[in-house]
Each structure stands twice: as structure tokens, then as C-alpha cells.
Amino acid sequence: MNDPVSEPVSSENAEPPAIPHRRLAPGKLVVASHNPGKVREIAALLGRHGIEPISAAALGLPEPEETGTTFAANAELKARAAADLSGMVALADDSGLCVEALRGDPGIFSARWAGESKDFAHAMRLVHERVLEQPEGAGRDAHFICALSLCWPDGHIETFEGRVDGTLVWPPRGDQGFGYDPMFQRIGDDQTFGEIDPDLKHSISHRADAFAKLVAAVL
Q: Using CA atoms in the order 31, 36, 42, 48, what is the torsion angle rounded to 10 degrees?
């Protein structure tokens, strides 16, 4: 019996070959952020791997305008800018709070809701007020997203995304975190990200989820 003839695979439908991951060597790395809380959290996650994080602020690097329409796009443009200006490997994070009742807002505009003064107490009140304006039963489901982009000076870039789901609480509780942490409670927890020990948060957050993927790929 003759073997069946297999259909040729169309080159139009074939998936492009995967780009191999590049290993990240121990040493100095620029964290493309001027947010002290974010830099501390990233440093805590990287330190155990022999990486020496240096903030963009410490190097006097400017913050580029975030013109992307997704977390990944903004993380990539920040990482590219920092790697180009410093001549070093750069890591950029773009993250934010996405509220289901607000159709994903504040999302990529999470920092902008805090204004130029980075007043996240104001930003949390704004989120709370907007949720109250929604129809009854809209709920308080929310999630944090984090996109991490690692860029080398030659332009090679890799991006990893993490997520954690939870619910909003009011009033905010705790002073351990930063940003919207005091009003976000992870599913299954009875404390907000602003109340839990920072070491615990570093192991369960959206940033930790993205870092786990980065570490598995490049370290």
C-alpha cells in the first residue's frame, strides 16, 4: 500500500523561526526607570543573579516619552533608549493597574493618572471615584500587568510579560508598596500589596511573574 502523499506546507502560513534567547552575563545593568520603588523591587529580583542594577536617574538619563499603545511597546522604547545612551544592557519595565469596570483603565496611563507630582494617593482616589460612577454590579475586579524588556547596545531586545489578578479595596491599606499597591488585593489573599512583606510581594507580583520568564530565558 502506498504511503499517503502529504500536503506541502505553504510558506505563507509557516511560523517564522524563533529567535534564540541571548544569555545575560553577570555585571552592571541599567534599570531604565526614575521610580525609586520600582528600581528597588527590580534590584531585589536581580541581585541574586549577580546583576548590579544602576538606575537611569543615577546616570542622568532622560525619561523618553511613552508613545506606545501597549505595555510591551512602552517597555521596549524605554529599554532601547537607555541601552543606546548608556552603551550598556538596559532593562525597562512598563506596568500598570487595569480595572475591569473601567475597560482596562488606567492601564498604560497608570503613572499619568498620578500627575507630574506622582501623587498616587490622588490616582487611587480617582480610580475609586471612577468605579463608583459605573453601573451597579460593575464589580471591582482588577489586575496588574508588567512588561519587561531587556535590550543590548547592539539593538537585540527580548520582552517578557507577567500578570496578577485581584480586586480593589477601599480605603487603601498599608505603606509597604508603591503606586496602586495599597488598593490592590490579590485573589486568595486578605492583605493588599501595600500590607504584605516586600519579600513576599517580590515572589508573587506581576513583576515577579515577568521576571520568572526572563530568568528562565536569559540567565
A: 100
